[in-house]
Amino acid sequence: MTTHPTNDAAIRQWNDIPRTALEAMEPDGDFAKRHLINPALLRMLGDVRGLRVLDAGCGHGYFSRMLAARGAQVTGIEPTDTMCGYAREKERALKQGIAYVQADLTRLPDLGGPFDAVVCSMVLAAVPDWKPAMRACVEALRPGGVFVFSVNHPAFEQLLTTWRAHGAYRTDRYLEEYAIPQTHAQDFHRPLSTYLNELAALGCHLRELAEPGLDPRTARAAQDTAPGIESYVHLPNFLIAAAERP
Known about the structure:
By secondary structure, the protein is an alpha/beta fold. It is 36% helix and 22% strand. The protein starts with 6 loop residues before the first helix and ends with a strand.
């Protein structure tokens, strides 16, 4: 009998990420975040000057720092010792006024009132028991506040790997939930409808879905060091959603 992984087990796995991997993602994340995810998140959030923003599952804090640089009052939630410690170290050096709180997203402490916006980028797919995490994000918002999240696109999750092997995208499992091994831990495949139906169950109004594609010029510039990167021009590896709490 297969035991379903727990959130605590996932946190322990992510806690083992080496510092060199965190440093490599400075200052604005990895290639995909820089070119595909960040622009969509920032556009959906809009002008954040003076707004209280929760970075839910902030990791090593790079997006929190981007938001603070744009004038937001940022709180970052991160459960792992390694990444939360790194984020706090950067805050001591940069003094941007970011409050980094070490906590499980499904068990949030008192954060001083509702937020104008909550961003949860590339987190939900890494959480085994994810529905309480999404609920916590929505409940942290003021009425009319915006919840923005990103995940690997459920229809094209292992795009680069299969494109390199076959010159095309292939999948034979979509409707079930299953674990996907990653470098440091694992993600979980869930159909797109699973995420959107949970948003609806929480009473959220969907504002926008984005499926960003890579600019062909960026792909050409990176193709020597990232074989198969042209796949990002043709198919979306990421899904970004913006929803409003009623």
